[in-house]
Amino acid sequence: MSRPAWIYRHRLGQPVPAASLIGGKAHNLARLLEAGVEVPAWIAVTADAFRDIVLSRAPLPEDKREMARWQSRVREDLALSVGFEEVLDRSLRDAGLNDRLLAVRSSATTEDGTAASYAGQFDTVLGVRAAEVGAAVRAVWASAGNAHALAYGGAAAPMSVIVQAMVDAEVSGVAFGADPVSGSRDMAVVSAVFGLGEGLVSGELDADTYRVDFSAPAPAVAATLVAKPEAVRLLAGGGTAREPRESGGSAAPEPTLTTEEAVEIARVARRVGESFGAPQDIEWAIEGADRRLRILQARPITTLARLPEGERRVWDNSNIVESYAGVTSPLTFSFARSVYEDVYRQFCAVVGTPTDQVDRHRHVFANMLGLVRGRVYYQLLNWYRTLALLPGYSVNRAFMERMMGVRQKLEDPPELEATSGKLADTARLLRMVGRLVRESRRLRTAVPAFHARVDAALAPLAAEDLRGWSPDRLAALYRDLEEELLRNWETPLVNDFFAMIWFGVLGRLVETWLPNAPPTLINDLLTNEGGIVSTEPARRVLELAARAAA
Asked: Which residues 6+ apart lie within 8 Å of 351 measured at CB?
């Protein structure tokens, strides 16, 4: 460490300094070196230099509206002391960086931590010549006041700066040692572009995605390739530029990585995570004709820290967002959840599910719905558990999914309790068919009787002004309506079930008889059905569109 402590260069075997001195990104680079990972040569301008050179002469403004002026002063007017420039030049020579093109990158003391990553919030300057490092350092210092960084973290953080040898990458990208979406520790995700990774991390270029599954003894790779007509390249005289690729316009996307390379990068990401004690998000680059892998940085996957432990939940709002559009109050949600619980217990009784099985799954019926940030969703896995209670699930799951309106098959449904074997389930299915045939014959009289019951329960209230009723009287009315109507909901359930059955049958017939038909044909065949109140909003929107077009 130089004196004053303005520059840091890590040497193997030394204790890794705290992020409060060299920032989160440099702290993780030192840990990578200690873990035996190959990292391009680097030094760090410490947070002490930021305090001594910047804050002592240009304190951060208390009013954030003055921040842009502060940034301009640091970038353009702040003179570096002779002593700092001498220390910086000597450190670049000692690290062998004085004749290289360099990457000058932020390493704020709050950056790349376990709670917040600050990814993309501060500035990076690529392709910097040694003579220009001072100006690039000032630019990164100034980015401590970036408006989006302040919005992300609430306050400007002390800024350390990394000066690192540029890797003239053939291919580069990011890799997650665990799936950042599902949280699966068995799945690593690698994203790759040709050239430098600047186009990927900025979001300007599309990337190939390689999902590497480590759940089996031999890793399995699923690749999603995209067209990559451009790449960000390092310019010989300094700086970078987006350039067209010679083969970028070919019909079939060219893969950025071989299967072996994707697995190697995924393995390194997982090994870094094991060394650091938590899954990591790494930036990597492949350099030269020998396609040598370099690791440029590592940070914790912060989203994993927020994933709850325990049972997996899958939320889906298909088929319910129309009923509960917008933000739903807790009172409305508690009513809806109670109704769904009661109605679907009745439904299982109608189709012949044994009472003891329904009672044993009462927690499933009680949690058919969820309220997530004020929006109502289905708890999809509990829907699968409810389907499994119906006769015939074990012998014809695919048809039942279609019948229930499931468009995308759930590849890893929850483990379901075996209610019976396939032979016994087939017998239950036949008994259910008999029940439904009987119920279908009753619908001609049951539907008018249901409407009559609803009218009889609601008609006396038409002339009442409920605003003047006492809370106790209103509660008693609610309980009476609940007992009279919701406890006798079998007729709508049977009617809906037949609608779903015939929708499933229609879909199966269209697939069999018209294999080349567009997937929307099933819905098109049903669009002339009239008199359905819930279709009115869509119909009126179409009318508005026609008027606007005219």
From this structure: 390, 391, 432, 435, 436, 497
Per the confidence metrics, is the pTM higher than 0.70? Answer: no
**Selection from 295, 274, 225, 216 nearest residue 254 by Cα:** 225
CA distance 64 to 44: 28
Task: Return phi, psi of residue 208, to 5°.
Answer: -70, 150
- Classify each residue of 155-179 as buried b or exposed e, where b means 16 or more C-beta atoms within 10 Å of its C-beta: ebbbbbbbbbbbbebbbbbbbbbbb
Place of tokens 């300007």: 204
Q: How confident is the model at residue 391 (pLDDT cuts 50, 70, 90)?
A: low
Closest CA to 392 of 359, 435, 440: 435
In this structure, of 190-199, 247-256, 455-464, the range with the lowest mean pLDDT score is 247-256
CA distance 22 to 163: 12
Return the half-sphere exposure (C-beta side, CA atoms, 13 A cut-off) of residue 269: 34
HEC string of 360-373 equals: HCHHHHCCCEEEEC
Helical segments of 396-470, H only: 397-403, 422-458
**Residue 2 confidence (pLDDT):** 47
Q: What's the pLDDT tens digit per position in 87-102? A: 999 999 999 998 899 9
